[in-house]
Write a structure and sequence with these properties.
18-stranded antiparallel beta barrel; about 5% helix
């Protein structure tokens, strides 16, 4: 495995040196993060104890820019300190499953304003509500895809296409064309989108996004359920204020084959008052009304699928709301006022308060005779961000959740057995440029 990646890196270096007018850059990233976890992405019980661990992201990136072609290759190793499966009593040696390719793409310049990008790449559009690089998880998120992009004057048009399969198709010739081993929840079959952006002056723009995604019906099936996510984004930034808004609908088929009829709306605003920035935002993610038993309603899926968008940064640092099942299918409303204070010497301090409600009433998963509606409690997040220097950053925070009975029930836990969810972290990020050649 290590020899294979070494050969790839050497090949990239040879390619870079072969073009005299090319620019080569080699960069790295080291990101260790200490985490103290008693509720991140899970529901703690009073019998559970907090867990403490350190995760680390290590990346090596090679960027090669030429007249017609650009190449980017990024290796990454993600590990928990001490998780090596090859080790002795006195040393850690190697985790054979932690090394992988984060990005590997080739970009062809088709003209002055167009390019074609092929390979594993990041997609991050607007405020990343649906297409995101998901930087908080150490692995990040990339896509194997073909991307065409054109930018001219005030317009940008991006078109992406992808089709995923498993390794069993290599050299297998004719036969069924489906995932042999994965259930439908694990991997997307196809991701395609059209993105159109129009600048409205120096500090504002609007965009439209149409995503066509497909999941395999079931294990060993050639049927693909296709879903369309359609909507737009508006962003405006002034000297002392900023505003963002999104609205999307979903139609077609869900991952389970039901007719989609869902929507997602967000709005955020912030103001700059000297070194203070107060802000407020609201998210509304539609859900299923558990009290509506009409056949026409039950044949449709009303829970919005967030697809590949950010969760952690938008819906609370405790990551309690990530999927429709997070609220027993009822969707949620998230109102979040915030306040940031920027200092000259000690970085930026931010406080966020998230108030959560069920969008639709749901049946109590633990008591079919009880309907749940209204508040799901609230969460307070405290974050400190400090740039030690340009390529060295320190980020720390603490989040805790003030739960209620509704929260416990939608998480399928008896309220008296629920502990207070909380989560703390301290993360150091170092991103040096190791080598850079000028054209």
């Amino acid at each position: 495995m290590k020899a294979k990646y070494t050969i790839i890196i050497i090949a990239c270096l040879l390619l870079a040196s072969a073009e005299a007018i090319a620019q080569l850059e080699i960069s790295a990233e080291i990101r260790p993060r200490f985490e103290l976890n008693h509720g991140f992405g899970q529901v703690p019980l009073i019998t559970d104890v907090p867990t403490a661990y350190v995760t680390q992201r290590s990346r090596l990136n090679i960027s090669h820019k030429g007249e017609i072609t650009d190449l980017f290759f990024g290796l990454q190793d993600i590990r928990v300190w001490g998780d090596e499966n090859l080790a002795s009593r006195t040393s850690t040696q190697l985790n054979t499953s932690s090394l992988g390719i984060h990005q590997a793409w080739l970009r062809f310049k088709l003209g002055q304003n167009e390019y074609l990008k092929v390979g594993r790449q990041e997609f991050a559009y607007d405020d990343q509500r649906l297409l995101s690089a998901r930087n908080w998880p150490q692995y990040g998120q990339t896509y194997d895809a073909l991307l065409f992009s054109r930018s001219k004057n005030k317009w940008q048009i991006d078109l992406a296409l992808s089709y995923n399969n498993d390794a069993s198709k290599q050299g297998s010739g004719f036969g069924n064309n489906f995932f042999l081993v994965d259930p439908i929840e694990n991997r997307i079959r196809t991701l395609n989108f059209l993105y159109i952006k129009r600048n409205l002056g120096k500090n504002a723009y609007m965009s439209g996004l149409a995503i066509f995604s497909g999941y395999q019906k079931e294990r060993q099936s050639n049927t693909i359920y296709m879903m369309a996510t359609l909507g737009g984004h508006f962003s405006m930034q002034k000297r002392f204020s900023d505003f963002k808004a999104n609205y999307y609908i979903q139609r077609g088929k869900s991952q389970k084959g039901k007719d989609m009829h869902s929507y997602f709306a967000t709005a955020e605003a912030g103001w700059k008052l000297a070194r203070l920035r107060p802000g407020i935002g609201i998210d509304l993610l539609s859900g299923n009304d558990g009290t509506n038993t009409s056949p026409n309603y039950l044949n449709r899926e009303h829970s919005f699928d967030l697809l590949y968008g950010v969760r952690y940064l938008r819906h609370g640092r405790l990551n309690q709301y990530v999927l429709p099942s997070s609220t027993a299918g009822g969707g949620w409303v998230n109102l979040y006022p915030s306040l940031s204070r920027q200092t000259k010497k000690y970085g930026t301090f931010t406080a966020e308060w998230h108030f959560f409600w069920l969008h639709q009433p749901v049946i109590n998963p633990l008591n079919s005779n009880q309907v749940l509606e209204g508040s799901l409690g609230s969460e307070i997040d405290l974050i400190w961000n400090y740039n030690i220097r340009n390529n060295l950053n320190l980020n720390a925070g603490f989040a805790w959740y003030m739960a209620n009975d509704n929260f416990a029930f939608v998480k399928r836990v008896e309220p008296e057995k629920l502990a207070v969810p909380w989560f703390g972290w301290l993360m150091l990020t170092y991103k040096p440029v190791l080598f850079k050649s000028e054209k």
